[in-house]
Amino acid sequence: MKKILMAAVAAACMFSMSALSFGVRGDVDIGMGKIEKIEKDDGSQTSKPAYEKAPNIFSGSAGAWLDLPILNLAIVSVGLRPEVDVAFNQGSTYEATVNSESGKVEIKKTDLEIPLYLDACFNFSVLRVSAGVGPYVSMPLEFKASEKTLGGEPLKVPSAGWASHTWGVAGYVQAGLKLGPGYLLGDVRLSTPLTKEDLFKAGDTEVAKEKSYKIGVGAGYEFKF
Q: CB atoms < 10 A from the CB of 79, how many?
């Protein structure tokens, strides 16, 4: 019985929830998106793409997360990290030809991004290194185009909100240095979309869709409580 009790205590200590932590961060991103195909309203692909993408613009994001520990060993901890980010100045400039008329359209948007990471963290006294991967959902809060017409056709962009959401997978590698009550952090992140995002329509006949891959380099601070 004593051995069973000791084993139960040891298991409880191993799987117990440690102190939660809360972090804030910001980063600079560069998109690597490309248009997958140009579609008509009925979903059929046109024989010749009408839109070509110019170089991406730089963007950024700011957010916060909560670490929820699941397993704690000697120097390794595993947990869930729900996060909320606001990504601003997203988008790019697109060169388009509609009705034999060429022009440029700059798309800018602000997104709400909510990833849920499975995180593994290695703690070495004043230094910690962690990595995480998980799904995310992205929802535009604002969608703007620099032009109102293109080739004589009205230019339309998707509406902001859940109706225009996309799904994907994101991951990060993060390093932290003990500073005060928490850690000063630096990280590199990559997000890979699983669904295409509507960009804009010229009239009612064609719609440009895109998968927007993104790399971000950021810094932040994590508080322990």
A: 22
Q: Which amino acid is at 162?
A: W
The encoded tokens of residue 163 equal 């109706």
Q: Are 79 and 69 in contact (CB under 8 A)?
A: yes
Nearest in space to 33 (alpha carbons), one of 209, 216, 218, 217: 209
> Is there a contact between 125 and 117 (Cβ–Cβ < 8 Å)?
no
Which among 71, 84, 64 is positioned nearest to 138, based on CA atoms?
A: 84
Residue bearing tokens 């950021």: 218
* Per-residue confidence band for 207, with pLDDT thresholds at 50, 70 and 90: low
pTM: 0.77
For 120, the 3-state DSSP assignment is: strand
pLDDT in tens, 6-22: 444 444 444 444 557 88
